[in-house]
């Protein structure tokens, strides 16, 4: 077997390792998948303007996010049900993240418990949170995450209801026997139902996730622990301003990988407005469509402190577990190093808006 040399080749190889239901669940977007495609297309609309005759004999990729040191400006986005890709699931992903010195954001809907993932290492872990209708359940999840040493809460705000993913509907998506949302089943008995003619995850959200969440609920959430709060799913400058006003220390510019509102703006296109609106009062991150080191470079030039990657991690995980995830991270690291050298940027601090032009 020929080893993949980029993230696109990993995706093609993943198709041969995953059942159709699992591959479609990971890869699909909402409705016509316009936003899913535009997340990638947005990076092609941004062109680089490299600087010449700069000493780039040594490239420094290190940075800090919420005070934590990262070996490169990369994080692993929260993704549910990783044991669909590999039996070790989130454990394998966590081990690769620790080895690479990057943050992993663990999903509420993980197939390994947050405590089991925390046992991997005292790494740079954040916990992604959905607010359930049962506030006691949400409170308990926050307490468990804090007790297990997670460093931040990452609240997903773009999913009051689940976007309609027609591939999941056609496949009647549910978890296969033996797999469960590990953070929820032992504590509350919650599981992903089997629904005739429908996605079980869509039904779960309709039954369990609170669609009445508002800005005022952030005060309650912040009262549950001293963990810094990051809001994931912001696409407007005015929402970014309100996020800071309500105490968010970080913002992830995200459209949920094109899986929620189809036709929503590409994450990269939304980034400059949000960076300007926040004006340094919170750290701004970006996810959606990252596939090359040049994509990371463009996001940083437009003001992101770091980026999050999602689906490529799952492709690496499905192909070869922890080793595959580690290779995905390393490929992006190597590409970013080369892109920075060719752009005349020896440090992340050298990257600014003069490096890009948007068309």
Short précis:
With 359 residues, the chain is α/β, with parallel strands linked by helices. The protein has helices spanning 7-17, 20-27, 34-44, 89-100, 114-118, 135-147, 166-171, 182-188, 200-208, 217-223, 237-245, 267-278, 293-301, 311-343; strands at 46-48, 63-65, 68-70, 74-76, 103-106, 125-129, 153-156, 229-234, 250-253, 283-287, 306-309, 356-358. 42% of the residues lie in helices and 13% in strands.
Task: Summarize the SSE layout with pairings.
Layout (H helix, E strand, L loop, with lengths): L6 H11 L2 H8 L6 H11 L1 E3 L14 E3 L2 E3 L3 E3 L12 H12 L2 E4 L7 H5 L6 E5 L5 H13 L5 E4 L9 H6 L10 H7 L11 H9 L8 H7 L5 E6 L2 H9 L4 E4 L13 H12 L4 E5 L5 H9 L4 E4 L1 H33 L12 E3 L1
Parallel strand pairs: 4-5, 4-11, 5-6, 6-7, 7-8, 8-9, 9-10, 10-11
Antiparallel strand pairs: 1-12, 2-3
Helix pairs in contact: 1-14, 4-14, 11-12, 13-14
């Amino acid at each position: 077997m020929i080893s993949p040399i980029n993230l696109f080749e990993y995706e093609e190889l993943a198709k041969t390792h995953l059942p159709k239901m699992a591959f479609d669940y990971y890869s699909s977007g909402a409705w016509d998948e316009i936003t899913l495609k535009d997340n990638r297309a947005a990076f092609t609309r941004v062109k680089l303007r490299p600087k010449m005759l700069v000493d780039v004999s040594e490239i420094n990729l290190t940075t800090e996010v919420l005070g934590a040191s990262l070996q490169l400006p990369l994080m692993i986005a929260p993704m549910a049900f990783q044991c669909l890709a590999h039996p070790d699931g989130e454990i394998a992903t966590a081990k690769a993240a620790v080895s690479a010195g990057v943050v992993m954001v663990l999903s509420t809907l993980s197939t390994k418990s947050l405590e089991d993932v925390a046992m991997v290492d005292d790494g740079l872990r954040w916990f992604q949170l959905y607010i359930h209708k049962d506030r006691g359940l949400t409170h308990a999840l926050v307490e468990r995450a804090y007790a297990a040493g997670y460093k931040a809460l990452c609240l997903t705000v773009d999913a009051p209801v689940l976007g309609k993913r027609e591939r999941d509907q056609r496949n009647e998506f549910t978890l296969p026997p033996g797999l469960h949302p590990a953070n929820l089943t032992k504590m509350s008995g919650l599981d992903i139902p089997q629904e005739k003619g429908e996605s079980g995850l869509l039904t779960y959200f309709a039954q369990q996730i609170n669609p009445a969440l508002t800005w005022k609920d952030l005060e309650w959430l912040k009262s549950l622990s001293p963990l810094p709060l990051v809001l994931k799913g912001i696409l407007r400058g005015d929402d970014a301003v309100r996020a800071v006003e309500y105490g968010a220390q970080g913002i992830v510019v995200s459209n949920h990988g094109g899986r929620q509102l189809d036709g929503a703006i590409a994450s990269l296109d939304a980034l400059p407005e949000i960076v300007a609106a926040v004006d340094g009062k919170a750290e701004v991150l970006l996810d959606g469509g990252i596939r090359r080191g040049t994509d990371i470079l463009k996001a940083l030039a437009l003001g992101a402190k770091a980026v999050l990657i999602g689906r490529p991690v799952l492709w690496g995980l499905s192909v070869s577990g922890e080793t595959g995830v580690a290779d995905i991270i390393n490929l992006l690291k190597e590409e970013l190093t080369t892109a920075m050298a060719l752009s005349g940027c020896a440090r992340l601090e050298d990257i600014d808006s003069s490096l890009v032009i948007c068309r």
